[in-house]
Amino acid sequence: MSEVLTSPKLRYPVVEIGAAASFIQRLQKPTGEIPWSEGGKTDPWDHVESAMGLSVAGYLQEAEHSAERRQLVVRPPGRSS
Q: Could you give the C-alpha distances from 4 to 17, 23, 24, 50, in angstroms and in order?
């Protein structure tokens, strides 16, 4: 098991944002969809969280592409299908 790095002052795990964003970018499908994992399902909550991660890390084109995907699948209020 890998060793968890922590900040000496804060004692929180250190996350390598660039590596995490690169992983998310590799998962992103040509449609802009970002699944949970390779071959995994996609749900709106995690899709948006992944897009935010891409944006924070500077993957702006990929984040914008994911937003295009959300616009395609969002339904008007009161419509379930």
A: 15, 19, 20, 22
Strands (E), 1-81: none
Q: What pLDDT is recorded for position 58?
A: 95
HSE toward the beta carbon, residue 21, CA cutoff 13 A = 16
Ranges of each domain in the chain: 18-73
Q: Which of 68, 4, 78, 60 is nearest to 30 (CA)?
A: 68
Model pTM?
A: 0.70
Exposure of 12 by Cβ count < 10 A (0-12 exposed, 13-18 middle, 19+ buried)? exposed
The residue written with tokens 């944006």 in the block is 55
**pLDDT digits over 63-78, tens only?**
999 988 765 555 566 6
